[in-house]
Design goal:
This protein is an all-alpha fold. It has one domain (2-256). The protein has 11 helices and no strands. Helix 3 runs parallel beside helix 9. The protein is globular and about 55 Å long. The model is unreliable at 4-16 and 45-56 (pLDDT under 50).
């Protein structure tokens, strides 16, 4: 912890460097690439992407999943990445890619159960089956409930306070393993905030571009807006209404998706 504490003045004093410009620009560029790829995948017929070839379909899904995480998450995590990058520019911590790699590792692992769910639901959702619509409604209601839980609030507070997170979890950051662990810790709290939102995307059909945009905006506002926790409550109300609608009228799935 002593190493991290001593780095704080250098972080605050690095405002004249190019880091505040270059890092956000790089994150936006990565997000743009993710959105481009996600839009391309959304325009494709996912049911025709080698469903009989499990290896190819798994590889395609994981590529799309990582692109989607980049598109939806990087803008929201830019404050903590920028803070870390300022320290990295002063060489008080390991290079930034180690931190980002830890973050992406968490979400890549989450892609494994997401793929299994997508593989099981892709065709029923495409066919508009009532049970798939009701399952999506149940997932929306679960997401609404999670939005209101104390655990969601705890995870959200960690994500909303980059300096506090840096001080609490920034141990041995001069070593790549320490930076990797910190990235994984931040990814875990981000997962705590957003796992239910990702479940909504899978339940409604992965690569649904409109839902991706809506949830990416919600994630960004929850984490970075002044009244983020209040915005999370509004999101819960919307999820609950849509969930009840799908449970009572599963034929509306086509309109929701």
């Amino acid at each position: 912890m002593a190493q991290t504490t001593s780095a704080i003045p250098r972080i605050r004093g690095s405002g004249r460097s190019l880091v505040p410009v270059v890092i956000p620009a790089a994150l936006l560029a990565l997000a743009a690439v993710g959105w481009w790829w996600s839009a391309r995948m959304a325009g494709a017929d996912m049911s025709s992407m080698g469903m009989d070839d499990r290896v190819m379909s798994f590889g395609g899904f994981m590529l799309a999943w990582v692109a989607m995480m980049g598109a939806m998450m990087f803008p929201a995590i830019s404050p903590v990445v920028l803070l870390y990058a300022r320290a990295a520019a002063q060489r008080t911590v390991a290079p930034l890619p180690f931190f980002i790699a830890g973050y992406l590792a968490v979400w890549s692992v989450v892609g494994l159960p997401a793929y299994a769910a997508w593989h099981a639901l892709a065709m029923p959702l495409a066919d508009g089956r009532a049970w798939a619509a009701r399952l999506a409604g149940a997932v929306l209601i679960v997401a609404a409930i999670w939005q209101l839980t104390p655990m969601k609030s705890i995870c959200l507070r960690h994500c909303r306070s980059p300096m506090g997170f840096f001080l609490k979890f920034g141990r041995r950051l001069d070593r790549p393993l320490g930076a990797l662990r910190m990235g994984m810790a931040h990814g875990a709290f981000c997962l705590g905030c957003c796992w239910a939102l990702m479940a909504v995307i899978v339940a409604l059909g992965t690569m649904n571009l409109l839902w991706m945009i809506a949830l990416a905006l919600l994630i960004f506002l929850e984490k970075d807006a002044r009244h983020g926790e209040g915005i999370a409550v509004v999101g819960a109300a919307v999820f609950a209404l849509l969930g009840v609608l799908l449970l009572l009228a599963p034929s509306t799935l086509a309109h929701v998706t």
